[in-house]
Amino acid sequence: MPLVAYSLGAYLAGLLAGFQGSLIVVCAAVVGAAALGGLRGRAVAATFGALALAGGVVAYEVAREDDACARDAARRPALTVLLDHDIDEGGFGRGRVVPCGGSVSISSDQGRAVAGAVVVARGEVVGTTRGLLVQHAQVQLVHGPSLLARWRNAAGASIDRTFGSDAPLVRALLIADRHDLSPELRDQFAAAGLAHILAIAGLHVGIIALAIEIALQLMGVPRQRAAVVTIVSKIMAGNAGRNGRL
Asked: Which of 27, 134, 157, 192 measures 20 to 30 Å from 140, CA to CA?
């Protein structure tokens, strides 16, 4: 297995350990990654350990920021939200609090907007196990979606026209939109051990990293430099996926 795959595993192990909120678990992940890298030499051991530590630090900071965001947002009479999905009057949508990025759900009584738009949601803000929930919300548009979001919306509309009843699954696989997936289909993928395919996660980041490495090598970039660029790109892609930008 190539070093890129092992390094991705070390970083993801650090992320998973960091989200557990335990210093002991993070240390165990770092030691384990370094021990695995030690089979390839001291330099690789140090690199794997550093990647696992970086993943743990990133996860800790993300969890800390999310907690702070939720506490602050819960005290506000209105939330500014970047929508992940379209929302209609009487409908339900999800998004991220601007600017801190905490997860929020909106149950709209009045107002509508498309995915990628920034809105102000006024209503009763309560905490849930999946983040904040704005109940009986009045949704007011601040500004429309960005160019990238408009491209994603257009891709989603094209998928709907092309695939019909299969569109929710294709949306999940191609543009990470799992909003319309039925619980039954989610359960089927989970039972088959394939639930990770429905998310922008390690598998997708690994594919991106492998594609970058192959492209760089075809361009004549030395193998070591290509590996460094690939690892950096992989970390950036992983963070982007976590924040919903992929």
From this structure: 157
